[in-house]
Structure formats: structure tokens, C-alpha cells
Design a protein that fits this description.
Shape: elongated
Low-confidence stretches: 282-287
Helix content: 40-55%
Strand order of the largest sheet: 1-2-7-3-6-5
Largest sheet: 6 strands, mixed, barrel
Mean pLDDT: 82
Order of helices and strands: HHHHHEEEHHHEEEEH
Strand content: 15-25%
Number of domains: 2
Number of strands: 7
Number of helices: 9
Radius of gyration: 24 Å
Length: about 290
């Protein structure tokens, strides 16, 4: 019989391991949100077996707890993304449980009565499988060059990872400046609050809000552009701002910084698209 404190400890470690595996497979960085979400899941699981609180252990309640955990550890753009993470979380939890039972069966009782040895063996097999899946996925994926990009607008600076896209050769038809496409959310500190909020929707739907946010500010009005571009296989209208940008270690140059409310990378590995011309400038001496 497992005591409540043992159950709490096992669930805390198991939830932390499964959530860390989810973050690893998604290509995100580990953060303190993982133990926070794991603690929430462990408390929920422990309470659900106590007398008078067994209603917490229902299917709907368990799925709700899982959904809350994935919302804590990762930023989602839609319910669909969150539900995909929840499905992956359930599959990973099932894999960990299965490997733990396998380790216990192979040991044939030699691990003693404590649940920890079998769990530790299952956890080791589980993480080896996760790491193998991660490395296999990245070894078979097409190689992409991702570079650090610094942008400057109206005295404010932002730093983000950019994918060098050979198809991103767009230029502003008025000025001829190269276009850089970036996620709006990645440049929150760079933009005035009103403009940031106005750019939350697709450009054509938010044009009135953007115009209102720029009204009365000559610097924004002179800087603002509206361009139709193809990003991640889709053509869309985007608002752009005349700014300065450079690949770190290279020369700064004027650009048109186009902002999209969409996520450019599902894995979160980059938040901007730049053309090869930016990298050619990056081969010079930094300024």
C-alpha cells in the first residue's frame, strides 16, 4: 500500500519527468514552470484518492488538470495547440507507466516492496527513449540556419532568433529596403502598448485599430507600411515599420520590420524570418 506522501512524491517526479519530456520534444527551453505544473498535478492526483475528494479523479477532471499543466509550461496560440500538447502529454504518461511496469516485471520481484526502484528503472528507459526520439527527429529534419537578430526602432532594441529563409527576398516597393518578418509577441518590449495591442489581429481586420494607435505620433505614421508577403507558405497582409536590424556580429542596416500575429515556428526555435541579404551584411565587421 502506497502512503499519501509516497504517492505525492511519485506523482511529483513523474509529472515533472513527463512535462520535461514534452518540452524537450517540442524544442522549448526548460523553465521553472515545469516544477510548478508538476506540483499542481501531484497535488491534484493525491487529493483525488483521499476520502471525500474522489470526485477529482474523474476523467473530465483529470483531463482538465492535464490541460492546465500544458497551459502553464508552454505558450499556446490556440486551443488546438493546447489540445495537441495534452494528447502528447497523455501518450508520454502512458509510456512512462508502461516502461515502469515493464521494469518491474523484468525484475521479477527482486526490486523489493518499495515502488522507487521500479519507477527509477522505468524513468531511465523513458528518458532514453525521449532523448533518442528527439535526436532522431532533428537528425532527419532539413538543416536550417538560425541566427541571432537585433532590431532597433525608435530608440528601443529587441533581440530574437531568426531563420535564414532563401525565399525571403521581399523588399519594400517604396524604399527598396529588405523585409524582415517577425512574430509580434517576440517584440512586445519594442512596441508602444497601443500599437502592440492593435497588431493582435490580421492586418486588414485591424487596420482601423492600427491607424488609431498611430494617430498623432508622426514617428509611427512615417514609419508604418502595409505589405502583402508570403510567410510559412501563406500569403498575408502585414503591417511593417521602418527600423534598423543586424545579424549579431555584423553591420546594422535599415529594414522594414513586418509583424505577424501568427507563430512562425511551431517548435518555438525562431521568431523571425530574414533573407540571405541580411547574412551577407552579417559577414562584415560589426558596428
Amino acid at each position: 500500500m502506497v502512503s499519501p506522501d509516497q504517492l505525492m512524491a511519485i506523482n511529483l517526479v513523474a509529472d515533472g519527468l513527463v512535462l520535461a519530456a514534452l518540452v524537450r520534444l517540442r524544442g522549448d527551453r526548460f523553465s521553472l514552470r515545469i516544477p510548478l505544473a508538476a506540483l499542481l498535478g501531484a497535488v491534484w492526483a493525491t487529493l483525488s484518492v483521499l476520502p471525500g475528494l474522489r470526485e477529482l479523479g474523474g476523467l473530465v477532471q483529470e483531463l482538465s488538470a492535464g490541460l492546465l499543466m500544458v497551459w502553464i509550461i508552454r505558450r499556446h496560440r490556440s486551443w488546438r495547440d493546447a489540445l495537441q500538447d495534452l494528447l502528447l502529454l497523455l501518450l508520454l504518461a502512458a509510456a512512462l507507466a508502461g516502461l515502469t511496469l515493464l521494469a518491474q516485471g523484468l525484475a521479477s520481484g527482486s526490486l523489493g516492496r518499495s515502488p522507487w526502484p521500479a519507477f527509477a528503472a522505468g524513468a531511465a528507459l523513458f528518458w532514453a527513449a525521449v532523448e533518442g526520439a528527439y535526436r532522431w527527429r532533428h537528425s532527419t529534419a532539413p538543416r536550417r540556419e538560425i541566427r541571432p537578430l537585433e532590431v532597433r526602432w525608435q530608440g528601443r532594441r529587441g533581440l530574437l532568433w531568426a531563420l535564414v529563409d532563401t525565399g525571403c527576398e521581399a523588399r519594400d516597393p517604396l524604399s527598396g529596403l529588405p523585409v524582415v518578418v517577425a512574430e509580434r509577441a517576440a517584440l512586445r518590449r519594442l512596441l508602444p502598448h497601443r500599437l502592440y495591442e492593435a497588431l493582435a489581429r490580421p492586418a486588414l481586420a485591424a487596420s482601423a485599430d492600427v491607424a488609431a494607435a498611430a494617430s498623432g505620433d508622426d514617428r509611427i505614421e512615417r514609419s508604418l507600411r502595409l505589405l502583402q508577403l508570403r510567410t510559412v507558405g501563406e500569403a498575408e497582409w502585414l503591417f511593417g515599420l521602418r527600423a534598423q536590424g543586424r545579424i549579431l556580429g555584423g553591420k546594422e542596416q535599415p529594414i522594414v520590420l513586418c509583424l505577424t500575429p501568427r507563430r512562425l515556428s511551431e517548435e518555438g526555435t525562431f521568431a523571425a524570418l530574414v533573407g540571405p541579404q541580411m547574412c551577407r551584411m552579417g559577414e562584415g565587421t560589426g558596428s
